[in-house]
Amino acid sequence: MPQSSAARSERRAERSLGALSSLVLVLITAMCLFVLLKAWPSFSHNGPMWFGWGGNVDDQLAAIFNSPANPAKWDYTIRTWPILYATALLTIVSVAIGIVVSTLAAVFIVEFAPPSVKRVVSPVVRLLAAVPSVIYGLIGILVLVPFVGNHLIGDGRKNSVTFVVQLSGASLGVAVVILTLMITPIMIAIIADALRAVPNGWKEGALALGANRWRVMWTVVVRSARPAIIAAAVIAAARAIGEGIMLAMVSGSVGFAPNPLDGITFVFEPLRPYAATIVDNAEGLSVKPFGQTIYAMAAVLLFASLMLSLGGTLAKRPLRKYGVRL
Amino acid sequence: MNSPTPLPPIKRIDPSRAPKVVDPRHDTLGAADAIAAAVAPGSSNRVERMRIDDLSIAYGTKPAVRNVTLPVREGEVLALIGPSGCGKTTLLRSLNRLTELTDTAVATGSITLNGDDIHALEATDLRRRVSMVFQQPNPFPMSIFDNVAYAIREQAARRPSKSALAPLVREALEDAGLWDEVGDNLDHPALRLSGGQQQRLCIARALASKPEVLLMDEPCSALDPKSTEIIEELITRLREKVAIVIVTHNLQQAHRVGDNVAFMYLGELVEYGTVEQVFNAPRAERTQNYVGGVFG
């Protein structure tokens, strides 16, 4: 009977797809468990102070790397506050700038750009979203870092902090600029898609009530695309948090917490987030306690991205009540 | 396997039933003069809100409305009827300049609101005074309150407080006959309402800015019979407050709610008159055919 054979092959396809997706779930869970297990000694030795401050985090990493051979005497002491701070600072600042810039850009592309501009800009934005981050890093280290180091930071400024940290040009400012540049295209693409999907009836309805185009855009179109803006911010934040190579290149890679009280100098101070720390220290992984410390940083990143997607879902929930499409 | 069933024979249109389309300016019934007299200024003692004068609209090279002249009077419901694609919706949308949203639309002739050319007004100001309800209910994804308050907030120079808005919102919802149903739940999302309630919310939203003319583009075509009945009663009631122009392809509806009826065909105004005259004693031959249900 041909019909039952079709039904059987459908069932088979269903089952194999189900198995495949369960396999992915199992793999991800296994990976999380593996990382946590590897990271545990570092967390258990430091307790909550793992996230605390005290001492120089780079010196602490070096001490861990140079631990004695006897496992009983392994050094685990680390206070990662400067790295945590750097990760949060870079992510929050660049996502915040990114939301504003990408929403404005998406509004322009969707609603106000002449058709000829639209035709060019939309594919270019998608292309930019796919540029590998290492290329951004390269441009940063070859162009932006020397420019900032040679022209924007005067000797006076360099001397003022010479006993604390060296200002080479690789800095918070450059890292934020390039990180924002890197995450904005994907945000523009997501938000523009959402703006395009807003029903024409809503726009026409608002225009027919005497709102001008600009107001219609803000009060109806962008408003109803808020879930997409949140989704874009979550995706961008995940990308920013996990960005290692580019930030290792342009952030200065110093376990230093830039101090906002330093005024303008703050922008020129170097830093290093978790992901860049992992990239920078990949060679040391064979030293057991050092490897476990690095795994602990990976565990923090994993947890952060998990929280991000959870937070994104929660943030969208109150919007659903008003029938905003998700 | 089924044995192949014979196809039904192709039905040919009986030539005697084919619509007789005659230009009103050349028709043998002599309707053109009578209609011209009916649309002329001063043919009624009611105040004229809007006047459409020799209006033609084309999308690119494709004409949609040809040389239409019509009055819109206070205290009356003007029903625009005609088959699909006859230009009635285009005509309606030109009254608050929504046709301008289509880049290719070109209009000649004039439309006035209380004697002022509508193109001399700010589009936003015009659209507050001539507001519109669409075919598909389109409440915004906000609360009921925010939907009704939308136009008031948009026209205010400073953002009005919620307590200042509340009586205006209530009045608009009462006018639209929705207050009894939603008065206690103003902060509920508008998109949770039923289709008929959504459409009445859209009417309330359009009334909130106290317009002089209310345009309705087939407001019941997406609704069930019960909601349609409620909205038709509403239209009959609202006519005292605001001049209404309603586009409908439902002749019974035009008959029920209209005071004056304009019949359009292929972009031209074929017939204009009171509802009794158009339905019981149509002057033009095409109107006779249409209201007799021969085509359309």
UniProtKB/TrEMBL annotation, chain A:
PROSITE patterns for the chain: ABC_TM1 (PS50928)
GO biological process: phosphate ion transport; transmembrane transport
GO (cellular component) term, any one: plasma membrane
Keywords: Cell membrane, Membrane, Phosphate transport, Transmembrane, Transmembrane helix, Transport
Subcellular location: Cell membrane
UniProt key word Transmembrane helix: yes
Chief localization: membrane
Pfam families per the UniProt record, alphabetical: BPD_transp_1
Membrane topology reported for the UniProt record: Multi-pass membrane protein
Transmembrane segments: 20-40, 83-112, 124-149, 169-195, 216-241, 294-315
Chain ranges of the ABC transmembrane type-1 domain: 84-312
InterPro entries reported in the protein's UniProt record: MetI-like, MetI-like_sf, Phosphate_Transport_Permease
Family that this chain belongs to: Belongs to the binding-protein-dependent transport system permease family. CysTW subfamily.
Protein name: Unannotated protein
Automatic annotation (TrEMBL), chain B:
Record keywords, A-Z: ATP-binding, Nucleotide-binding, Transport
Protein's name in the database: Unannotated protein
Any one GO biological process: phosphate ion transmembrane transport
SUPFAM superfamilies named in the record: P-loop containing nucleoside triphosphate hydrolases
Any one GO molecular function term: phosphate transmembrane transporter activity
ATP-binding found in the keyword field: yes
Keyword Translocase: no
Stretch list, region Disordered: 1-20
Domain ABC transporter: 50-291
Pfam family, one: ABC_tran
Stretches with biased composition (Basic and acidic residues): 11-20
GO cellular component, as recorded: membrane
